Amino acid sequence: MHTPLPPEEIERLARKRAGAKLGWYIHATVYVLVNLLIFSMSHYAFGTRPWSLGPLLGWGMGLVLHGVSVFVLGTGSGIRERMVQRERERLERAQRGP
For the 2TM domain, which residue ranges apply (predicted)? Predict the structure, then answer.
């Protein structure tokens, strides 16, 4: 088991996590709005060439990776916390010796 965090640390960590999630939501909103504009421009203003798929897919991949870093691998995520716990236990065992 690990020691409980002091209230100040919990507040700091909660603000950091909320900020990261809010950043992703803002990123996703801008992605949707800009790509709607690009798609409408490519379809209605410049003909039916699907050139808008390039930015859609490229930026979409960036958005997915941003989401993975925030929701899956970010500080406090289940995967990260389990890995940190395993490493902590491994280091403590190594420090105690055989």
Answer: 14-86
Count of other CB atoms within 10 angstroms of residue 42: 19
Q: What angle do CA 14, 71, 59 make, to 5 degrees?
A: 125
User: Domain locations in the chain?
Assistant: 7-96
Residue 7 in tokens: 């209230």
Q: Model confidence over 46-95: pLDDT tens digits?
A: 666 677 888 899 999 999 999 999 988 876 667 777 777 788 888 878 77
- Is residue 5 a contact partner of residue 13, using CB atoms and an 8 Å limit? yes
- 65 touches 24 (CB < 8 A): no
Q: Is 68 strand, coil or helix? A: helix
Alpha-carbon distance of 27 to 12, in angstroms, equals 22
